Amino acid sequence: MSAVEDVVTESPAVEAVPKRAMTLGYGTSLVVLAALIIIPLLVKNFIIFQMTMLLIYGLAVLALNILTGGSGQFSLGQSAFYAVGAYTSAILMEHAGMNYALTLPIAGIICFAFGFLFGQPALRLSGVYLALATFALATAMPQLLKLGYFEYWTGGVQGLVVTKPDAPFGLPMGQDMWLYYFTLVVTIAIYIASVNLLRSRSGRAFMAIRDNEIAASAMGVDVALYKTLAFGVSAGITGVAGGLGAIAVQFVAPDGYTITLAISLFLGMVVGGVGWLPGSIVGSAFIIFVPNIAEGISKGLSGAVFGVLLFLVIFLVPHGARQVAIIAQQLVAKLKKN
Amino acid sequence: MLSTLRIAAASAAVIAFAATSTAAFAQKKYDTGATDAEIKIGNIMPYSGPASAYGVIGKTEEAYFKMINDQGGINGRKVTFITYDDAYSPPKAVEQVRKLVESDEVLAVFNPLGTPSNTAIQKYLNAKKIPQLFVATGATKWNDPKNFPWTIGWQPSYQSEAQIYAKWLMKEKPGAKVAILYQNDDFGKDYLKGTKDGFGAKAASSIIMEESYEVSEPSIDGHIVKIKAANPDVLLIYATPKFAAQTIKKTAELGWKPLQIVTNVSISVGSVMQPAGFENAQGLLSAAYAKDGTDPQWAGDPGMKKWAAFVDKYMPGADKTDNGVVYGYGAAQTLAKVLEMCGNDLTRANLMKQAASLKDFTPDTLLPGVKINTSATDFAPIAQLQMQRFKGQKWELFGEIISGDVPSE
User: pTM of the entire structure?
Assistant: First the structure.
């Protein structure tokens, strides 16, 4: 929590996240990108699937990062936006027979609208109160999806099974690999757009609000508009991630989008480093792989082992992956000097 | 001339050999996951998360195959049982099952738990032609050999059980006003549908109230008070153990005595009736297919003695009142039987064929008279139940063994 509190409560957040530190340098970016492109060619389908999920959760964490790290607002309700995105894609694909790629922008737009509207009442709340309001959204969502009125569309408690797309144009690759590269392209596009958003006038407005709301409004920033806008953008990206998740998992059900998911995403953000966008992927790796490691150590106590590992991370590197990256950078700089 | 004769003789011998070898000297045949020395079986269970109470089923199965291996394995092969945590989350279930299939290379996935998790992996496993054996859920849709020939159920379906209650009520208590308390998820809704189907045309006039609760609610006392106000004659309790115990207790506290029927999921003497209070549970009705580990009437039963010996030796410290231990034992025993029937032909196709050829098989833990039967068109192994009434500190069975197969839609 400490990292979040730092960003959200410390008033002069000069140290917090300078703009450039929000991204990686060009060299590092290219290395990461090359790794993401080449690795799937060498591994089994199951690992490609895991990497796809890594990107998808990475996107969802990124979305939360824009909201919390960028505009300083809390959300424990990301699972609700994720669910709306997933169901939008699934319903459009299965009931309307729409192409999977086309469902994603629609999922994004619907979630943007949903997030923007939810941002209106949320304006009056801040800090823990906002967290609680979004928490309510996350707990309500699985029940709403079960409602009898929507059952024809949502499949009710039984959920909906989604057909996995084949590679187009007769490309010689499996469904998993195609979906991975598709997800990768979407992720990179959203990542670049997010970085540019935070570097733009709107991004500066977000950060001004995060650092000091009163000062921001004195400078002429429309606080209400930008706060709800941040909610909308965050929800929209989460929705796209949810849609991709539905296609990758081939199934949506209310029980897949409980508060646990929202907390996982929150966890991923903290572990990755609040406000540091590349950390989203690290955070996503943490929420996917660390439970498996914990299970490998002890099946009966997997939850407890996970807790210990999480505690160690928070205790040793409270700023998450960002801190590790900074330390690594300093080491490299030192080595260069010598 | 001589050479043609030789060829004829040789070919005759070859043909004769080929004919006998398929019959008598069956060749050893294997798919991925089976060898001369081992059979790899995969499983997913919610060891963490909201349904972690069911994790004991996976642990029981793991212990059961340890016992089998200690006794020399199945047809000389050891069973390697690999079980992973899916936290009752469909995305995690897909990830873990793909790990089992593509990384651990198991022969089959056995007894994965939960309707959402099983739905999530069904398409994948069927596309890859990997058996999804004896799934641990009571949904009706697992009995669908035409569309999903690689998926087979195990326990009686919730809908068929609910139909049995409805039919019993129509016969024994015609005209009774019925209220239903159900859990708002796939489990509860299946019971609701089964009850309505069972009542048929009389559903609208018989069922005067449907009240649902969420698993996340701490107590359901409020719902009981609400139901009592409608004053039904019969209360159907389609709730998981904790809530069933609360319901039985609360109705007694209110001094209200409707005829109560509780789902088979919540009939444990140790974890439902005792906490609810034996005096409050008198006269309660339900239906069963398995023996209860805590019911004294089975103390001398040879099957349950074997079960108790297994628990003492391989799961020391396990809670014998937990129904999951009985369940896991019965399911694992069914798999062991099927693997034994496979003989040396451990291909996935044969495994599925054998799983669909069980004839009157009775695991140690099933009620006397309840038998497992499957066929190429019947993928619902256990389809029989018997009505029972709670008296004193145990269940008393009554009536006939009722078969309640519900065809899948």
Answer: 0.79
